Amino acid sequence: MNNIKSTFSIKDLENLTGIKAHTIRIWEKRYNLLQPERTDTNIRYYSLSNLQKLLNISYLNNNGYKISKIASLESDAIPQLVKEVAQSDTTNNHAIDTFKLSMLNFDQKLFYDTYENLIKEKSFSEIFYQDLIPLLSEIGMLWQTDTITPAHEHFLTSLIRQKILVNTELIQSKNQVNSDKTFVLYLPDNEVHELGLMIINYEIISRGHQAIFLGQSVPIGGLKDLLNYYDDITFVSYFTVKPEKDAIVDYIKDFSKQLLVKDSIKLWILGRMLDEINLTSLPKQIVPFKTIDDLVKKL
User: Fold this and answer.
1) 147 in a domain, yes or no?
2) What's the CA gap between 99 and 111, in Å, rounded?
3) Mean pLDDT in runs of 10 for the chain (299 residues)?
4) Residue 261 sits in which domain range?
5) 275 located within any domain
6) What total of structural domains would you count in the chain?
7) Which of 28, 167, 236, 286 has the most C-beta neighbours closer than 10 Å?
8) pLDDT on residue 2
C-alpha cells in the first residue's frame, strides 16, 4: 500500500509555506489561485500539486511579484518563472522549498538534482550552513506539528548523511594531518542524532586536525582507552535529547571524574540539552557552544 502523504490541511500548508491560513483563503477567494477539495463535512484539503503551486507562489511573492500578477499567469507559466528568478536569486528559499518537496514525495532524484544545482555555485560547507541547517530546523518544526511523519524526517536526514559522508571522505583523501591535537567525536548513551557531529567531523578534518569519529551511543567507559594513546584530546559531543534533564549534571560529573584527568584533556559540548544546566558552573576543561559555527570558529 502506498502511504505517501498526498493530501494536506490548510494548517499543513501554513506550516510548509509560511503563509497564514487566512491569507491562503483570501487568495483562493479573490484570485482562485488554489482549488481545494472538500471532505463530506466541508473541510478543505489540498493535493500535493496545490502545495507545490503555493510554494512557487510564495517564492515569487517574496521576490517582489504581486499576487495579482502571479494570478494572471497560466498555471504552467508559474514554475517556469520560478526557474528564471531562481537563477539570479542569492537566497536559499527556492532550494529549501525544493528539498521539502523531495521529502514529501520521497523523491531521491529531486533531492540529488537540487543538490547538484547548488554545488555548481557553492562549496559543500556553504550548502550545509545556508541551505541544509535552515531546512533541518524547519523539518523539526514540521515534525512537531504533525505536518510530516517520522518517515519523512528519516528519509531526508539519510540523504543529507550520505552527502556529509561523501564530502568527508573526499577531504580525508586530500588533506594531511598537520596538528598534534586529536578530536574524539561521540554521542552519549542512547543519543542517535548525529548529523551535527558529522559536520563538525568534516570541519575538523578540513582544518588538518586528527579526528576520531565514534558516532552514536558511546558510554563514558568506552572512551577511557583513548587516554592511553593520546596526550592532547578534545572530546566533542552533541546533547540533543540525551542525557536527559535529570541526568545531565551527573553525566558531566562522571565524565569529569573518569576522563578529565589532566589539563590537556577537554570536552566541547553542544545541543539543546545544555539549556538544562548552569553553564557557568562547568569545569574549566568543559566548553559549551551555542552553535556549530561557534565551535568551528574555535578550531
Assistant:
1) no
2) 6
3) 68 88 91 86 85 85 88 86 72 82 90 94 92 85 74 92 96 85 95 93 94 96 94 95 92 96 96 92 94 93
4) 178-298
5) yes
6) 1
7) 236
8) 46
- Within 8 A by CB and 6+ apart from 62, the residues are 93
pLDDT of residue 3: 52
Instruction: Give a yes or no: residue 211 inside a domain.
Output: yes
Q: What is the 3-state secondary structure (H, E, C) of the chain?
A: CCCCCCEECHHHHHHHHCCCHHHHHHHHHHHCCCCCEECCCCCEEEEHHHHHHHHHHHHHHHCCCCHHHHHCCCCCHHHHHHHHHHHCCCCCHHHHHHHHHHHHCCCHHHHHHHHHHHHCCCCHHHHHHHHHHHHHHHHHHHHHCCCCCHHHHHHHHHHHHHHHHHHHHHHHHHCCCCCCCEEEEECCCCCCCCHHHHHHHHHHHHCCCEEEEEECCCCHHHHHHHHHCCCCEEEEEECCCCCCCCCHHHHHHHHHHHHCCCCCEEEEEECHHHHHCCHHHCCCCEEECCCHHHHHHHC
